[in-house]
Design brief:
Blueprint: H1 2-18, H2 22-29, E1 38-40, E2 67-70, E3 77-85, E4 89-97, E5 102-107, E6 120-131, E7 134-143, E8 158-168, E9 174-180
Antiparallel strand pairs: 1-6, 2-3, 3-4, 4-5, 6-7, 7-8, 8-9
Length: 181
């Protein structure tokens, strides 16, 4: 009898210790975004994104927004990319610890390509996963000023390239470095 009680107690303890948390279940449902993965902000491809469960996943994402995926595991920190609505779907990098507590959050994209004005000739934006802690976003804008009638002055055409590099440190904090060419 005592042996059976001991075995049952051990089984109960072991089964409780191996149960996945809600956050582990959320991460298990996400697409793994490998190094080299690129996303075209203009195409706005949110297909095949994970839509969080309104009950279990709402602890981590309220309101429930499409989640693109999770960056390669760096051991202690989960880096998740999701979209927030606006004029476009804007990609956001959010970091969590292993228990699912949010650490930091930062916009990936500049988002200038939504709602073009007369001045815009070309606008391209996209990001690439450089390594398991770094994302590079590049925005290319070509603009030509317009007068009040919408006529362009091609002698004033200007090309601008902006780069935003997001890096996640070992504590899950996101630093942003921007460069304009």
């Amino acid at each position: 009898m005592r042996l059976q009680l001991t075995i049952l107690t051990l089984l109960l303890v072991c089964s409780c210790g191996t149960k996945k948390s809600d956050f582990d279940l959320l991460v298990a449902n996400l697409k793994k975004l490998d190094v080299g993965y690129t996303y075209d902000q203009i195409k706005q491809d949110a297909e095949n994104c994970y839509t969080p469960d309104k009950n279990a996943d709402s602890i981590f994402y309220t309101p429930t927004v499409p989640i693109l995926g999770v960056l390669p595991d760096n051991g202690e920190i989960f880096s998740v990319i999701h979209f927030e609505p606006g004029d476009d779907l804007y990609p956001i990098l959010r970091t969590f610890d292993r228990k699912g507590r949010m650490i930091d959050e930062e916009n990936i994209a500049y988002g200038y390509c939504a709602g073009w004005d007369c001045d815009f000739d070309k606008c391209e934006e996209g990001f690439k996963i450089i390594d398991k802690t770094t994302i590079l976003d590049i925005l290319t804008l070509v603009t030509t000023p317009c007068d009040s009638l919408g006529n362009k002055n091609s002698s004033l055409t200007k090309k601008e390239v902006k780069q935003r590099t997001l890096t996640v440190d070992n504590s899950g904090r996101i630093s942003v470095f921007e460069k304009v060419e």
